[in-house]
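Tokens for chain A. Residues wanted.
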């Protein structure tokens, strides 16, 4: 039966059309969720957030001469074990020895739990599902007062402000880096009027 080789959660998955090489950009291991109003979902409530990521997987034949097809199931599990999402799809290894499966995750549903969520990949063999991979995603809910290491009236220094400004102008900086840079810039002292 076909084998799962790897799975990676990332912001972008780019496949070069000439070489068929894949580039997995900005692997995701942790997610900090900021609530603008300082609240988290009520117990038992599931909310959707903008995520804009992909789960990329590589599958290959167990016998490179034998075509195979099978079903795969993707589950997104909360720390409590609650299954938030479940999707199934078919993998066809008829004309090819290996295949990539890329699942777009534009929105992500979360419960009120901080902790390790898992993307669980399962393969159906003889009408039985078996887990082949568990990809962790650490989720931390933060209220506006959490994650703010600046003491009251403390200001970002000139060097840190310059570095943050460069990060904001960068076209290659990640969303998280720009968020941190913007936060640092809001703590810069006001400019003196001439």
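Reply:
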């Amino acid at each position: 039966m076909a084998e799962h080789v790897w799975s990676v959660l990332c912001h972008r998955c780019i496949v070069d059309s000439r070489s068929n090489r894949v580039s997995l950009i900005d692997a995701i291991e942790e997610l900090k969720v900021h609530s603008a109003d300082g609240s988290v979902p009520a117990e038992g409530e599931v909310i959707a957030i903008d995520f804009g990521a992909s789960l990329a997987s590589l599958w290959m034949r167990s016998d490179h001469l034998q075509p195979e097809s099978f079903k795969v199931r993707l589950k997104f599990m909360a720390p409590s074990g609650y299954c938030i999402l479940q999707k199934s799809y078919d993998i066809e290894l008829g004309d090819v020895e290996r295949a990539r499966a890329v699942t777009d995750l534009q929105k992500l549903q979360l419960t009120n739990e901080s902790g390790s969520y898992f993307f669980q990949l399962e393969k159906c063999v003889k009408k039985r599902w078996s887990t082949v991979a568990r990809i962790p995603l650490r989720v931390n809910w933060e209220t506006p007062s959490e994650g703010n290491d600046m003491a009251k009236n403390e200001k970002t220094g000139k060097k840190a402000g310059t570095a943050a400004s460069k990060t904001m102008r960068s076209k290659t900086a990640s969303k998280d880096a720009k968020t941190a840079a913007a936060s640092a810039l809001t703590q810069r002292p006001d400019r003196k009027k001439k």
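Helices lie at 158-169, 175-186. The longest helix spans residues 158-169.
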